[in-house]
Amino acid sequence: MLDKIKVRLNDVLNNESGDAAGWTVTLFIVGLIVVNVGVAILETVEEFPPEYKTAFYWIEVVSLAVFTVEYGLRLWTCTADEEFHDPVKGRLLYLITPFALVDFVAIFPTYITLFAGAAAIDLLFLRSIRLLRVFRIFKLGRYNDAFKTIEKVLYAKKGELFVVAFIGMIVIIVSASLMYVVESHTSSAFDSIPDSMWWAVETLTTVGYGDVLPATFVGKILGSVIAITGIAFIALPAGILGAGFIEEFQRQRNEKQKTMPTTASINVAAEIREFVSLRDDGHITEDEFNGQKARLLKKS
């Protein structure tokens, strides 16, 4: 009996069967996540009157209770999944899965802020911990295929992205070193290579804040070349990710096409049903029916 309850709860929490109970829980949790992220953002606005702060507090308390119960139920029912079937080892493995870690991060900051209090913790640290609640938005990944698609693309293109990141680091170091050699005697902004690296990063990423500028003619020429190089520097990862998304979408379309019945198979099934009716009505014998069925299946 307990195992049946566990399996059913696991099904509802993950909405595997897509029934009314599963969709109700899913929509409720998604709505609560959206409300919580909004509250975490609005709480940073000091101009809100006290009554709003009180409402935000109770929304947080209720949400904490719901998310804690959800976390506990997921931990208890995870053994219904074959991957985590062992009562102890399975639950430990589940605890370190990405979604379980997101669920944990979604609730622990609130416990710290509710029970530790501002007197026990530095106020700045306390506010920083509370802002971690914004990360509850990642709980939506459990209910949205978009997060899964991004994860698959990043995993598939991790090798290319690592190469681009490595090349980018080399370009930043070389650019900063060259600007240090050219500009260090004229500007305090290029007193060291680490200082010059800030200029290299904002130039190569085409941000160009304008807080650090080369003063010499050679420095300006070099800065122009580095800025143009930055266009290619940004285009490389964008192109890799773009190609990755195209490949992933194409793969998903191919999988859908494989699972969809073809027109030919639908026609064969319809003809077999007709021969079943003829056999049941006595118009053809069992042997004739089997012969026609074999012929149709062979043709398909």
Class computed from helices, strands and strand pairing? mainly alpha
Biggest pleated-sheet summary: none
What coarse outline follows from CA principal-axis ratios? Answer: flat
- What is the fourth-level CATH superfamily of the largest domain? Voltage-gated potassium channels. Chain C
CATH class of the largest domain: Mainly Alpha
- Number of helices, where a helix is a run of at least 4 consecutive DSSP H or I residues: 12
Strand content: under 5%
Total count of domains: 3
CATH topology of the largest domain: Four Helix Bundle (Hemerythrin (Met), subunit A)
What proportion of the residues is helical, as a percent range?
A: over 70%
The helix/strand series, from N terminus to C terminus, equals HHHHHHHHHHHH
Distance between the termini: 46 Å
Mean pLDDT: 80
Tell me what the CATH architecture of the largest domain is. Up-down Bundle
What is the alpha-carbon Rg in Å?
30 Å
Q: Note poorly predicted spans.
A: none
Task: Report on the architecture of this protein.
The chain has 300 residues and is mostly helical. The chain is flat. The protein has twelve helices and no strands. It folds into three domains: 2-143, Voltage-gated potassium channels. Chain C (Four Helix Bundle (Hemerythrin (Met), subunit A), Up-down Bundle); 158-259, Helix Hairpins (Orthogonal Bundle); 263-299, no CATH class.
